[in-house]
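Colleagues,

For the teaching module next term, I've prepared a clean inverse folding example: a structure given as tokens, and then the sequence designed for it. I'd like students to try predicting residues themselves before seeing the answer, so please don't circulate the second half yet.
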């Protein structure tokens, strides 16, 4: 598809932006030419190249599009911990493929599944995906004539990927209902094709809004300290041809005060039974700001991110990451040597600050434990008691 045109339409009639006449752009609808994003963030390799999992190395984006090949579970666990592969839904897919990899290699499969599930503690999809693949492996292994467990785990991983792609499309369709015409949307972290087998969660809604001609501007929080917004969401937005601007996280307050944000939409790493949402650190602050400025705050996530076995926000394990992620930038120390740092990867937003949660099953509004239970009732909890003991690394 062609690149986004620098022209706008009003009631179907195309006109050029004309500042001299003081034309009010707020009443005009952008012409959209949304390009397909199509970023394969993960690829399974069958023999002879595999069995292996090939990951687009998200730590090197946008400067470099390179891949990391994981032919064993320790390499995959390392890639997960370094954020080569990241984002809740894709972690679910990667976790399942990792279990299949272990099984096809003849490794100790339950031990491999536990190592994968414990690699990052907050995004519940990781343990969920690993658990589903392990259960498929064990079912096959325990059934005479059912075939090798490795193939069953691989089939389960493929099914999880297909389900995630379908969920992403449904989330986009449901989320579009919440986007007003001419919306200026603020998002945080990265929630597009890089974190999903489809077009993502919150970013899938943004894409749907752009295709529908409802998106006037995407505001992208840079998302300190690892800059998933500036590096990855801006990369995806540019590829899609979306008009976007990156802002320092601390600028969101004045942007909202200036009336420049109509909707905030983010993803989630875990949604507890009471509707509390863990997501990239900074999300809670945005929700507080949104409430103060009367801006709707919406969370988009697949049902696989809903964890009814975690009762509330306080029970969500929050991953603490290396202080160097805060005290260094691009390999350079930016604080005095040996400065301590507080570096939680996520924070928790209470349901009272969330306008709606969008899943593939529809829009949950208001966000209450009862509504969530009804919506997520079908989700099988396969997250075993895999330790989040090493939350502090
Ligand atoms: O530490 P990351 O980069 O894995 O954090 C990712 C996020 O917080 C995303 O917002 C979340 O996983 C939702 S992705 C659809």
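(Answer key — instructors only)
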């Amino acid at each position: 598809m062609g690149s986004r045109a620098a022209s706008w339409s009003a009631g179907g009639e195309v006109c050029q932006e004309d500042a001299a006449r003081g034309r009010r752009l707020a009443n005009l609808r952008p012409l959209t030419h949304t390009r397909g994003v199509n970023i394969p963030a993960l690829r399974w390799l069958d023999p002879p190249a595999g069995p292996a999992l090939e990951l687009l190395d998200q730590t090197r984006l946008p400067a470099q599009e390179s891949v990391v090949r994981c032919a064993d579970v320790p390499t995959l666990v390392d890639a997960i911990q370094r954020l080569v592969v990241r984002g809740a839904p894709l972690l679910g897919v990667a976790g399942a493929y990792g279990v299949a990899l272990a099984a096809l290699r003849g490794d100790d499969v339950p031990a491999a599944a536990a190592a994968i599930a414990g690699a990052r503690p907050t995004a519940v999809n990781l343990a969920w995906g690993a658990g589903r693949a392990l259960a498929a492996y064990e079912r096959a292994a325990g059934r005479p004539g059912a075939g090798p467990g490795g193939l069953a785990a691989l089939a389960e991983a493929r099914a999880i990927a297909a389900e995630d792609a379908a969920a992403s499309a449904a989330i986009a369709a449901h989320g579009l209902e919440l986007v007003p015409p001419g919306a200026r949307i603020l998002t945080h972290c990265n929630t597009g094709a890089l974190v999903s087998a489809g077009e993502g969660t919150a970013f899938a809604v943004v894409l749907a809004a752009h295709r529908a001609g409802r998106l006037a501007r995407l505001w992208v929080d840079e998302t300190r300290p690892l800059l998933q917004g500036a590096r990855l969401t801006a990369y995806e937005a540019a590829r899609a041809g979306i008009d976007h601007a990156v802002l320092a996280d601390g600028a969101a307050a004045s942007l909202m005060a200036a009336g420049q944000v109509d909707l905030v939409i983010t993803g989630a790493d875990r949604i507890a039974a009471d509707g509390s949402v863990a997501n990239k650190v900074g999300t809670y602050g945005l929700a507080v700001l949104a409430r103060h400025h009367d801006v709707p705050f919406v969370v988009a996530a697949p049902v696989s991110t809903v964890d009814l076995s975690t009762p509330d926000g306080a029970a969500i394990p929050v991953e603490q990451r290396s202080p160097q992620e805060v005290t260094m930038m691009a390999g350079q120390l930016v604080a005095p040597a040996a400065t301590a740092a507080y570096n939680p990867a996520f924070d928790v937003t209470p349901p009272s600050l969330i306008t709606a949660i969008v899943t593939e099953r529809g829009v949950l509004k208001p966000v209450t434990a009862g509504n969530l239970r009804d919506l997520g009732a079908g989700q099988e909890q396969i997250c075993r008691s895999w330790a989040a003991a090493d939350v502090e690394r």
